[in-house]
Amino acid sequence: MTTNASENTQDPDSGANPRFAEALRELGVGELLSSIRRFPDATRTAAEAAAAIGCELSEICKSLIFAADGVPVLVLMDGASRVDVERVREELGVEKVTRAKADVVRETTGYAIGGVPPFGHRTKTRVLADRSLLAHDVVWAAAGNPHAVFPMEPKELVAYAGATLVDVREQIS
What we know:
By secondary structure, this protein is α/β, with parallel strands linked by helices. 26% of the residues lie in helices and 23% in strands. Strands 1, 2, 3, 4, 5, 6, 7 and 8 form an eight-stranded mixed beta sheet that branches. Strand 2 and strand 3 (71-78) form a beta hairpin. The protein is globular, with a radius of gyration of 15 Å.
């Protein structure tokens, strides 16, 4: 597997992807750059990120891109839960929702899977955030590459992402 050079690019001060670092500054929350935690090993999965941070799996905010009738949509989900695509389909009022392919994720967000942050994307995308994120005082999300995460209060994260709060997590029977 080849690695895209931009995936490993990082802001020299914070460890974040430079595009994401700029997005934080543009949003007026550049101070978050000092809170970014960088890891020597990639944390491409929520479980890897939680282990590296030392937090609960549900305190990880996953940024997942789906295709809703072929149109990319971002779903923010707690790390311990799975997205119920049928609930996403109903929420959006579309015919079909599928997981987006890696090239669509990169084209839409500007980031590789495993490092997609909740905002600061290349294109404007509809964003849904599962209410489960609000159960925590702080959640951790990718900072634009698989080696860096940042903490944020969930309500702020939802606001900066321009997300609509929904209930789209898979229910365990």
